[in-house]
Design goal:
The complex is a heterodimer of chains A (894) and B (229). By secondary structure, chain A is of the alpha+beta class. In chain A, strand 2 and strand 3 (114-122) form a beta hairpin. In chain B, strand 7 (160-164), helix 6 (172-189) and strand 8 (192-196) form a beta-alpha-beta unit. Classes of the chains: A alpha+beta (894), B alpha/beta (229). Bound molecules: adenosine-5'-triphosphate and magnesium ion. Magnesium ion (MG) binds next to helix 1 of chain B.
């Protein structure tokens, strides 16, 4: 008996032959165009990921650098009064670079004049980051240096020279020290990151060694101390910060900050941009993944016959897998190389756009983005393309005899599981955020289930609706119903794609709009405070004469809530409520330099946010109620300030009556107020009562005067106040500040022009980045749509060829195709719109912290666009179906 | 060469179990040519597929070239097919993305034979398609495609050739040319030939006929009488 002779059956096919065969199949399929879409999808995935990663990598580094430049250091320690030496010694012991700054307001005297200046004494190492720009004469472009003045010299800001009537080379007195004016300061890195003392007048910079000689800094005088630290690695900084924060006894006295706490606008813009970029690259990869899945599925469906034939020739399943793996790997490798190049190109293009905006040259990226790009391609392939291709190995060889023998062993479910697992992995890998991953997974699956249900029912009902219409309708609807299962899948893919694109577009538009509204072109960049009633007219005239854009004058007075409906207030927990930030003085600035009460009050109200919180460690999530029950700077006004919205109650309007007060809504919530409550205030040692008539929302980030408490006119007018106003002064108008200060010597001017400019620059960069990413994702989306339309082509080809041999005219078939695609597009667009609005609502509430409002235009544009795009794409690619002769189509079918 | 013992094939359908082959016993010697005939739906293709190791039987045994197929898994059956078996199909089954020459070369190359190109071109000459090497299947007529398929079937010097209605898609004249070619090569390579056909004349050219009626072999002698009558 011949039994059990199977031991002889060893395989003799050499791998090299299989490899050659794989390459040949690859080459043929490539020429036949079958693999091109798959290749393009892979390239898209690599391009978008590599491009975005390269760009964000460099941008992040650049922004870190740039923002470090805003501080002249990586970390700054400041606090009330003198700082413990221990801090700087520890920093030095850890190998950090250190510098010290003492700033104070002082009078500078020349032979012929004098002026209040913001003096700043620095040690040799200053600045640790960024450049001081100096020049040999005033009002010119300077050159960068990484040092302050040497002992015996002072550097002055340009406009101080005409005011003091001196030239470079002359000497001036600062306190008791006589110092030589050797250079002009055009710009300094931490001009905007300073304290109140740095805004008192033009800058005067001197060496720390000369400070003692001036004799102006004495115990209790208004001085701001800072320690600066810089290091090469984030880890060193973090461990230093940890050491610092561990010192309980320093809490509330000394503060360590970095740029994130320095400028909330910048930090927020960066954070949102990062979220957006992350989301964008996720969408790009997912869409590319869907395109890969669709094209790979179609590719493998077309290869069932191949595999069956190869199997009759004796190819084992393992060898089939080998062949198709080889094809995929070669394809992926090619795609990675092309994608790398395109990704690099994309990021170069962004850089060219941004070059003019960036203040620092971008550091070279490392290899990480390329690795990320390549891994993405292979993971995408693994998750999306491999399952259908591996299913090929299960093709029964009997298929050569019975065409209907189909793939059963690896079910569609396994494919989905692979795709879903791959997706989850990618999301987690990119975001490194478990919560975000979980949320995304849950919501996407919810949306998918919801979508499939809706689209299933839509297509179901459309059948009977179409029955009564003409024959093209009839044809389209019966076709739609016949392919219901595929169509449900198509509608799902279409709507998820359109949805992603809508989500990104909506987020992008809202973000950019908000940023533009936050700091429009003509944002006032100078604050003027401590203005008396009598000076207002003079100042207005001065502005009018010199073409300066002035603004409303707000009266300013400090007040304190003492009773609510006769009871002592019991406010909520400070940490948990995010009530609008302290205003400029309410923030630490002034406590920091230990200003006495009187000055503090005058300097108070503008919510510049600019050099913010140093009295308190930054708490997570928003601002805190600083000094909630202590004094607040209040005002009265007839009209509701810009950017304020009444959220409850009524604004008093033009015919206002005294005795009312409007409260910022979160502050009101924190105090537990109701409309109609009677509040008792202590204003300048007088008791005032007022009824709460409205709550307001306030835009804290617009760098304009903002108030927690506004009284109706006539309520506290009699108590006497100083006034505050703002003005927009262009660079070339700044020299006028000298005249202004000479005319109104008691007025205090705070310059925030550089800060605003810096923020605008960063926001502009971030905006361009967001635009580009949106375009990339749009391309990915287009690819998916194309892939999805193409995926249904084979069957349509065959079906329509048969219809045409049966006598259906070209026009009829085209019309019916148009109707079929258009209705699929309409349904998909509608579903996408619903999904997009829901997602945008969630994202804006939870991630971007924006106010959500329905986007009415999307409800029309979404379905319409879906219809037009799908119908256009569909008819365009199926035109071949009707143009090719039916014979050719039927011949193609082996 | 090939032997079946009590071969049964049953499949599950929506209307319950359908028994396609009901205990087939046949024996085919090496070098023999056998025609499997019978009405449409009688189970001819099913039997062919089973004997060629393209599918598994429900019960019973098939011995192909001294291997008991039921003892082999699909991987081993594949290797066995590669070494022993060649096919010609009604619908040609050429790979559409390979040229005529490449189609013929494919199985030779898979065996690791370095002379694939030579052998393939000789065979294409042999079937009269010398000038059509570089044409793709959709550039060839049905008869030409079937000739390429025959060249491919003999390319690996298979010892058993299975053909399922090789002339089914061809007109009579072309069909008989293809059949001539098939028998010519069959003699030349002294292959065992098993073919399924409706064509009585084609069946008559075989050494022997096996007639299937509703999944059962009807008496071989009866068959022979029926044919000679
Ligand atoms: N996998 C299967 N599932 C269900 N029924 C099957 C399957 N395979 C074969 N059959 C049925 O078994 C019967 C025999 O099929 P087979 O293809 O062997 O017939 P045949 O003799 O080759 O017919 P023809 O001359 O028309 O090719 C047919 O009725 C067919 O429908
Ligand atoms: Mg048959």
């Amino acid at each position: 008996m011949p039994e059990s002779s199977s031991a002889k059956l060893t395989d003799s096919k050499p791998l090299s032959n299989l490899f050659a065969l794989a390459l040949r199949l690859l080459w043929r399929d490539w020429q036949g165009g079958e693999l091109r879409l798959l290749f393009v999808a892979l390239v898209m995935a690599v391009t978008s990921v590599t491009g975005i990663a390269l760009f964000t990598d460099r941008l992040e580094k650049a922004l870190l650098l740039e923002s470090a430049n805003m501080l002249a250091a990586d970390r700054i320690v400041s606090g009330r009064g003198d700082l413990p030496r221990e801090v700087i010694e520890e920093g030095q012991a850890r190998g950090l670079r250190t510098a010290e700054i003492i700033s104070f307001a002082s009078m500078a005297f020349s032979n012929s004049g004098n002026m209040l200046v913001s003096a700043k004494a620095v040690t040799d190492a200053y600045p640790l980051r960024g450049d001081v720009i100096i020049a040999d004469e005033p009002f010119v472009r300077g050159r960068p240096v990484q040092t302050g003045p040497p002992p015996g010299e002072v550097w002055l800001e340009s406009r101080a020279l005409p005011a003091l009537e001196i030239d470079v080379g002359d000497t001036i007195f600062v306190g008791e020290a006589e110092l030589n004016v050797s250079q002009i300061i055009i710009a300094e890195p931490d001009r905007t990151g300073g304290s109140m003392m740095d805004s008192a007048g033009p800058r005067l910079m001197l060496h720390m060694d000369d400070l003692e000689q001036t004799n102006v800094v004495q115990l209790g005088s208004r001085v701001s101390y800072r320690y600066l630290f810089a290091a090469d690695t984030i880890e060193e900084l973090d461990s230093f910060e940890e050491w610092f924060r561990a010192r309980e006894e320093w809490r509330g006295r000394y503060y360590m900050r970095d740029i994130r706490e320095e400028s909330e606008e910048v930090a927020e813009a960066l954070e949102r941009a990062e979220s957006f970029l992350l989301l964008g690259s996720l969408f790009a990869v997912l869409l590319a993944g869907v395109a890969i899945a669709l094209t790979a599925k179609r590719y493998s469906e077309r290869h069932y016959d191949y595999v069956a034939i190869l199997k009759t020739f004796g190819c084992t399943s393992g060898q089939i897998s080998f062949i198709y793996l080889t094809i995929q790997l070669v394809l992926a490798t090619g795609a990675v190389v092309v994608g790398w190049f395109l990704g690099w190109l994309v990021h170069r293009i962004i850089l060219v756009f941004l070059e003019s905006l960036l203040l620092v040259s971008l550091p070279q990226p490392d290899l990480q983005p390329y690795v990320v790009g390549a891994l993405t391609a292979f993971i995408c392939l693994l998750a999306f393309a491999l399952p259908p291709l591996l299913a090929l190995r299960e093709t029964p060889p009997l298929r050569v005899l019975r065409k209907d023998m189909s793939q059963q062993k690896i079910g569609a479910n396994v494919l989905y599981v692979f795709g879903i697992l791959g997706t989850i992995f990618l999301v987690y890998w990119y975001s490194q955020d478990f919560e975000l991953t979980a949320i995304l997974v849950v919501s996407v699956s919810a949306i998918a289930i919801f979508l499939s249900l809706i689209s299933y029912f839509f297509l179901r009902s459309s059948g009977s609706a179409g029955m009564k219409a003409g024959s093209a309708w009839l044809l389209a609807m019966t076709a739609a119903r016949r392919r219901r299962k595929q169509n449900v899948l198509q509608v799902m893919v279409f709507s998820v794609t359109i949805m992603s694109l809508l989500i990104l577009t909506l987020l992008r538009t809202d973000l950019i709009e908000e940023w533009q509204a936050q700091l429009p072109e003509n944002t006032p960049n100078h604050f003027m405070m401590n203005i008396t009633q009598g000076q207002i007219e003079g100042i207005e005239n001065f502005f009018a004469e010199n073409g300066i854009e002035g603004n409303q004058f707000y009266p300013l007075i400090s007040a304190r809530v003492t009773r609510i409906n006769g009871d002592i207030p019991e406010p909520g927990d400070e940490e948990q409520v995010s009530v609008g930030g302290g205003t400029l003085t309410e923030n630490a600035q002034l406590d920091d330099v230990d200003l006495d009460e009187g000055v503090a009050d005058t300097l108070t109200t503008p919510q510049t946010d600019a050099p913010p919180v140093n009295t308190e460690e930054a708490t997570t999530g928003g601002r805190r109620v600083r000094g909630g029950l202590s004094r607040r700077q209040v005002t009265w006004a007839e009209e509701l300030p810009n950017d304020n919205l009444v959220t409850d109650g009524d604004w008093w309007g033009v015919e206002s009556e005294p005795g009312y007060v409007s409260i910022e809504q979160e502050y009101a919530g924190w105090l537990g107020l109701q409309i109609g409550d009677r509040l008792e205030f202590e204003v300048n040692q007088q008791v005032v009562t007022a009824e709460v008539s409205s709550f307001r929302s306030v835009r804290w980030d617009n760098m304009q005067p903002n108030f927690f408490i506004i009284f109706s006119p006539g309520t506290i007018d009699h108590i006497g106040a100083t006034f505050l106003s703002t003005a927009l002064m262009e660079q070339e108008q700044k020299i006028l500040l000298n005249d202004l200060i000479r005319l109104f010597p008691t007025m205090v001017i705070i310059e925030i022009d550089e800060l605003i400019e810096q923020i605008q620059t960063i926001i502009a960069q971030v905006t361009s980045a967001i635009e580009l990413i949106s375009i990339l994702v749009l391309l990915c989306g287009a690819l998916v749509l194309l892939a999805c339309v193409n995926a249904s082509l084979d069957e349509r080809f065959h079906e329509n060829a048969i219809l045409r041999t049966l006598g259906a005219g070209r026009k009829l078939i085209l019309t019916s195709l148009l109707i079929e695609f258009a209705s699929i597009g309409l349904v998909a667009g509608l579903i996408a719109t619903i999904g997009a609005e829901a997602s945008v609502y969630y994202l804006q509430e939870e991630v971007f912290e924006q106010e959500f409002a329905l986007h009415y235009w999307v409800w029309i544009a979404g379905p319409l666009l879906g219809m037009l795009i799908i119908a256009g794409l569909g008819v365009n690619s199926t035109r071949k179906v009707v143009n090719i002769s039916p014979l050719n189509v039927l011949r193609r079918v082996i | 060469m090939i032997e079946t013992r009590n071969l049964v094939k049953a499949v599950d359908t929506s209307e319950g179990v359908l028994t396609i082959l009901k205990g087939i016993n046949i024996r085919i010697e090496a070098g023999e040519s056998v025609a499997i005939v019978g009405a449409s739906g009688s189970g001819k293709s099913t039997l062919l597929g089973l004997m060629a190791g393209l599918d598994g039987a429900s019960s019973g045994e098939i011995i192909l070239d001294e291997h008991v197929l039921s003892e082999l898994d699909e991987e081993q059956r594949a290797i066995l097919r590669g070494q022993v078996v060649g096919f010609v199909f009604q619908s040609f089954q050429l790979l559409p993305s390979l040229t005529a020459l490449e189609n013929v070369m494919l199985p030779i190359e898979l065996k690791g034979d370095p002379q694939a190109r030579e052998k393939a071109s000789n065979l294409l000459d042999r079937v009269g398609l010398a000038e059509r090497w570089h044409h793709y299947p959709n550039q060839l007529s049905g008869g030409e495609q079937q000739r390429v398929a025959i060249a491919r079937a003999f390319a690996t010097e298979a010892r058993v050739l299975f053909a399922d209605e090789p002339t089914g898609n061809l007109d009579t004249a072309t069909g008989s040319k293809v059949v001539d070619l098939l028998f010519e090569l069959n003699r030349e390579f002294s292959t065992t030939l098993i073919l399924v056909t409706h064509d009585e004349r084609l069946a008559a050219r075989c050494d022997r006929q096996v007639r299937l009626v509703a999944g059962e072999v009807v008496d071989a002698e009866q068959t022979e009488e029926a044919v000679s009558a």
